[in-house]
Amino acid sequence: MQAIKQTRVRYLILLMLFLVTTINYADRATISIAGSSMQKDLGFDAVTLGYIFSAFGWAYVLGQIPGGWLLDRFGSKRVYAVSIFTWSLFTLLQGFVGGMPVAWAVTTMFMLRFLVGFAEAPSFPGNARIVAAWFPTAERGTASAVFNSAQYFATALFAPLMGWIVHKFGWEHVFVMMGVLGIVFSGIWLKTIYNPKEHPRINRAELEHIEQNGGLVDMDSARKSGSQGPRWDYIRQLLTNRMLVGVYLGQYCINGITYFFLTWFPVYLVQERGMSILKAGFIASLPALCGFIGGVLGGVLSDALLRRGHSLTLARKLPIVTGLLLSTSMVFCNYVEAEWMVVGFMTLAFFGKGLGALGWAVVADTSPKQIAGLSGGLFNTFGNIASITTPIVIGYIISATGSFKWALVYVGANALVAVFSYLVIVGRIQRVELRDGPTQGGSARNEEAPASPLGPQGSTASV
């Protein structure tokens, strides 16, 4: 009897994750493209702009654990759809603050950016949760890299467009455009996303392939059987796990690089390098395009190492460490004057950051299946503290020194700390097993880290 050919519904799901993450990051980047013109129109200084940039991060961090809990309690489809609609509505409203008095405009913009951050909180834990359910272990690195690389694709696609809109029509219009786009997409999401066992287009062959190779297709079974959601004691177990603490620190530093590019980078091009906002929009897209290439390549390389028999630890850490070392190249911009060299070093740095941005693959590999959403939310909480600190610290550095030179050193140092964290603190990468009963000074279980920082070869950590 001929075997039934597998459907490929999981790739449709991945496409949806890529598109929603593109919209997500384009909404975050609106403020960076509009920032220089908005600062000029409303007449506030670099420190104030830094605080406006950080508003998103305050709420995004505060919303991570509640957002993850909601995902585990009510499922990814509904919670994510509400999230998309809500953040898009608040993005749309930002387009109407320009006519206010300066003090009101600054306060209102801060609050709307804050609300966008809170509404977006379930997005990346939701992505990691959906990937863990829909993809086998050996495909998870690529899947995670594809949705994560959408952050670079968003800048590459939308930065030139938004720069042109600001130049032609004014900064307010970028918020209106992105808000309308997101509201429309929330309806498409509801029509497309399902759990693996509920999708009308999946066949048994694909479902069995996913389930037998590590996909958590039963992730929502506890929710449907009447569970009241994850226990908050689980957070303590995650926070006392050395591997996860190292991953959290690494993600904080990686996001420090991300939020430099999402907030201050276009301002750097305009104010430090003397480019027009139109030119800055196009130039900003070049590093982002290479970041996208690096992001996809990192996942493909990681999964290729895994399929060749290397450990999960080596397969994840090698691209991370290599990419982050490349990202320190941005510091060399302090020693060159030619625009093409500045763009070249920033492009190399963004490519490296993309190559090393496998944190969400690590989350999908390590999260306990009972609390995949909560685990991703906790990871994103620590990572996105950088969305608060990075814009503010850079704002103060610029205010104190009058240039971006030490700001670039600060961002490059984040990459080195992340390398240290993955090589020294993380140890072996494997799925965490929670203890349901009382523990005696212990934490969620995982094996002791091996002596080698990249882990043993020839074996795969249990998943």
UniProtKB/TrEMBL annotation:
All residue ranges annotated as the Major facilitator superfamily (MFS) profile domain in the record: 13-430
A GO molecular-function annotation: transmembrane transporter activity
UniProt KW keywords: Cell inner membrane, Cell membrane, Membrane, Transmembrane, Transmembrane helix, Transport
Main location class: membrane
Family matches, as Gene3D superfamilies: MFS general substrate transporter like domains
NCBIfam families: 2A0114
Keyword Cell membrane assigned: yes
Domain of life: Bacteria
Annotated stretches, region: Disordered: 437-463
Compartments (UniProt record): Cell inner membrane
PROSITE patterns xref list: MFS
Example GO biological process: carbohydrate metabolic process
Record membrane topology: Multi-pass membrane protein
Sequence intervals crossing the membrane: 52-71, 78-97, 103-124, 145-167, 173-194, 243-262, 282-306, 318-337, 343-364, 376-398, 404-425
Family: Belongs to the major facilitator superfamily. Phthalate permease family.
UniProt-recorded name of the protein: D-galactonate transporter
Cellular component GO terms held in the UniProt record: plasma membrane
Alphabetized SUPFAM superfamilies for the sequence: MFS general substrate transporter
